Each structure stands twice: as C-alpha cells, then as structure tokens.
C-alpha cells in the first residue's frame, strides 16, 4: 500500500510528498479539523464502513504539534483507530466527533508505546489526532479500520508478557472493602477481589501517575466487564453506573510506568454527583448556572475582555451573554509554561467549540458563530500535573450593517 506522508506543520516550506486533501472547515471537530487531512486521501475514500481495506497516513509531527486525520463512518459499529511511532516513538491518540467531543483516547494500548482505541462509533465524521507523549518530534502512522481488517499495532494483551489483562486469579487476590483504599507496589500485589452483598453500583480507581496504572474489572467467572487507562491524567477509573449483582469480582491492575511505586486502589459506591463534577472539572460537560458549581459570570460581552487565571488540570469556568448574533473569539495564552485547552457550550449544555494547540503553538483559540443567549467557556491545563497562569481573551464581532 502507498503511504502518503503528511506533516503537522502546515506552513512548512518543504514538500514531503503529495499531500491528501484538506478538510478546510473552521468548526470541524471543535476547530482542530480545519486543516485535517483525509486518511483515505480524499473524502470519498475515507469511509471506513465501506473501504475495502484499512486507511492510513504517515505523518511527520514537529515539536509540540500534532497530526489530525479525518475519516467518516456511514454504518454505526465497532471500529479500530491506531497510531504507531517509527523507532519506538511514544504516541498519544484522540478521536473526536464532528462537534469536537472526545469519543476515544489512548496512550499505550497498542503495545510498545503505540496507541490503539477499539470503540463503537455512530455514523458521522471524525477527527483522529496523533502527537508524541513528551511533545518531541515524531514520525508515525495513523490507521482507521473495521475490526475485521488488519491491525497496525500488536495490542496490549498480545505483547505484554507480564500483563494480567484478560485473566484474574481470585486465589491470588487481596480482598478489599468498599470505601477503604489499599496501596501496594505493582510488583508486590496487582490483583484484588471485591465482594458485594447486594446489587451495587461501584466506582474503582487506581492512582499514582508514576506507575500509570490500567484497571480491568472481571466477574467471578473471569468474564471481562470493563477496562480503563488514563481517566484522570495517568490515573485510571471504572464507573459501573448500573448495579452489579451480588457476588465476588476481580480487579486486575496493570501499568505502563514504575512497578516499584505504590498504586492506591479504591472501590466505592458509585456517586452520580461526583461523576458529574468530574465531567465539569475536565470540561466535558457544562455546569448549571444556579450557583452549585463555580462559574465566573462576565456579563454581556461587548467588544473585548481580558482575564488572567491560575489554572491546573481542573477546568475554570466563565459565562458571558450575547445580545445579538455574530462571532465570538476566545483565546487562551499560556504565560510561561502551560498547555491550555478550551471548550465552549451554549446554555443548553451543547458543546459549540473545542480547541487545543492552535496556530502551531500550545495556546488555544476558539472562533464560534453565536446567536443571542448565554455561553460558557472552560479552560484547563492539558497536563493535570501543570499549574500556571493563562491569559484569557474574549472578543465579540457583529455582522457589518448596510
């Protein structure tokens, strides 16, 4: 198969090869799809529901940048999206729908630092972004395919000899109790058992970014129930909102990081309010404007506002009002170290914009066409371990009048 080479630096003065067609839609995938390239070379060849073979691009990603590819799905179903760096490069993969909502994200599930997401996708257009974990330059492949087509990566279970994913021996498990955290080095203990006396909704977490843990939940017969990696930074979390039947369950912990640091494992009753607050903190859902969650009300946006805010991995929220239709520009500029992410919602909770890394930098920029109403904007650091000042700029533009 011919593999066209793409570059994530659109303004590069050199040509690597014949480039695939660009999307050229400023609002696609929350803004990151404006200069995205069709994985199949053109839109008509990028429908992975009907493509005779997998589709992929080879991309050169320059310093602190990312490659964004496009594909479509005409038939809802399970699909595989992958990224693999050449020479062992450590890729990070995000898949967004046309509105910019992340529907799948992965770091190392492809094995050997490659990324792999296998997920159900509804019909629509999707953006897949690939970047290196540490922001260094990387050359890699991005592939989208059906589950019956050839995979790009080995997959985590196949290549990890010490993996406990796919098996959970309860005879080796340490019992844990709801609401009581336990901490062990992975090299000492990595299998836990949980007994439920009645139907219970549960949440399970594994925490220590230095270990970069992965969680897998099984029933007592060894049937796979759920798995998670990198829910909150490099920590993992499984939320079982539907009550699990009474019985014994097995929790397997794997890791990508240091096996000699303690990983704190906690099982507790599922708290819908806590889950909702986590969505607010990650900017993945907008909070209500009733005072139950902090939102800095800026009032009516007239022409231009500037705010400086000290931001961590938890989103800071703003709201503003628009009295007439037009265009709103929101910019987040790191003051020193930082990598801000922006998300924007209307007052009904619909995401109308999302952006990370605009214009070849780590800063973010949203340009959204608006109607009269109230809008909310979330800003956070991409890296949960980063804390730093972000300069926020809000600007409103109105149509020219005859």
Query: Can you count the helices?
Result: 2
Mind telling me the CATH class of the largest domain? Mainly Beta
CATH architecture level-2 label of the largest domain? Sandwich
Rounded radius of gyration (Å): 22 Å
Uncertain spans, ≥5 residues at pLDDT below 50?
1-18, 157-166
Structural class: mainly beta
The ordered string of helix (H) and strand (E) elements is EEEEEEEEEEHEEEEEEEEEHEEEEEEEEE
CATH fold-level topology of the largest domain: Jelly Rolls
- The number of strands is 28
What does this structure look like?
Keywords: Signal. It comes from Octadecabacter ascidiaceicola. This is ABC transporter substrate-binding protein. By secondary structure, the protein is mainly beta. The chain has 3 domains: 5-158, Sandwich (Jelly Rolls); 170-270, Jelly Rolls (Sandwich), CATH 2.60.120.380; 286-397, Jelly Rolls (Sandwich). Helix content is 3%, strand content 48%. The strands form 6 sheets. It has a 5-stranded mixed beta sheet, with no helix packed on it. Strands 2-4-9-6-7 form a 5-stranded mixed beta sheet, with no helix packed on it. Strands 11-13-18-15-16 form a 5-stranded mixed beta sheet, with no helix packed on it. The longest helix has 10 residues, at 272-281.
Secondary structure layout plus pairing:
Blueprint: E1 5-7, E2 37-38, E3 55-61, E4 67-73, E5 77-85, E6 91-97, E7 102-106, E8 115-121, E9 124-132, E10 138-146, H1 156-159, E11 174-176, E12 182-185, E13 191-196, E14 200-207, E15 213-219, E16 224-229, E17 236-244, E18 247-255, E19 262-269, H2 272-281, E20 296-300, E21 304-311, E22 316-322, E23 326-334, E24 340-346, E25 351-356, E26 364-370, E27 373-381, E28 388-397
Parallel strand pairs: 1-3, 2-4, 11-13, 20-22
Antiparallel strand pairs: 3-10, 4-9, 5-8, 5-10, 6-7, 6-9, 12-19, 13-18, 14-17, 14-19, 15-16, 15-18, 21-28, 22-27, 23-26, 23-28, 24-25, 24-27
Organism: Octadecabacter ascidiaceicola
Protein name: ABC transporter substrate-binding protein
Signal peptide: 1-23
């Amino acid at each position: 198969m011919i593999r066209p080479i793409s570059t994530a630096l659109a303004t590069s003065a050199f040509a690597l090869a014949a480039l695939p067609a660009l999307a050229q839609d400023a609002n696609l995938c929350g803004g990151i799809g404006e200069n995205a390239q069709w994985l199949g070379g053109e839109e008509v060849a990028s429908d992975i529901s009907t493509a005779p073979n997998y589709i992929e691009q080879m991309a050169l990603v320059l310093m602190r940048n990312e490659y964004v590819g496009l594909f479509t799905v005409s038939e809802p179903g399970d699909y595989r999206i992958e990224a693999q760096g050449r020479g062992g490069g450590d890729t990070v993969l995000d898949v967004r729908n046309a509105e910019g909502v992340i529907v799948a994200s992965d770091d190392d599930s492809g094995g050997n630092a490659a990324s792999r997401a296998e997920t159900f996708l509804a019909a629509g257009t999707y953006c897949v972004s690939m970047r290196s974990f540490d922001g260094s330059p990387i050359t890699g492949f991005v592939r989208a395919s059906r589950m019956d087509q050839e995979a790009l990566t080995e997959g985590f279970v196949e290549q990890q000899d010490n993996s406990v994913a796919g098996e959970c021996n309860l005879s080796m498990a340490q019992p844990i109790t709801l609401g009581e955290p336990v901490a062990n080095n992975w090299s000492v203990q990595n299998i836990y058992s949980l007994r439920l006396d009645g139907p219970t909704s549960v949440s399970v977490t594994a925490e220590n970014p230095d270990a970069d843990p992965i969680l897998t939940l099984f029933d007592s017969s060894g049937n796979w129930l759920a798995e998670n990696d990198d829910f909150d930074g490099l920590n993992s979390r499984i939320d079982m909102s539907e009550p699990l039947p009474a019985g014994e369950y097995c929790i397997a912990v794997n890791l990508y990081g240091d096996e000699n640091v303690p990983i704190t494992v906690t099982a507790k009753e599922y708290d819908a309010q806590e889950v909702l607050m986590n969505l607010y903190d990650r900017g993945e859902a907008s909070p209500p404007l009733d005072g139950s969650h902090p939102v800095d009300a800026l009032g009516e946006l007239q022409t231009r506002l500037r705010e400086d805010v000290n931001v961590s991995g938890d989103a800071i929220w703003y709201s503003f009002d628009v009295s007439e239709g037009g265009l709103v520009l929101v910019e987040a500029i790191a003051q020193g170290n930082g990598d801000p992410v922006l998300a924007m919602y209307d007052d009904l909770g619909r995401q109308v914009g999302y952006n990370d890394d605009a214009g070849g930098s780590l800063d973010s920029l949203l340009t959204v066409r608006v109607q009269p109403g109230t809008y909310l904007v979330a800003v956070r650091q991409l890296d949960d371990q980063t804390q730093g000042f972000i300069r926020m700029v809000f600007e409103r533009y109105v149509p020219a009048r005859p």
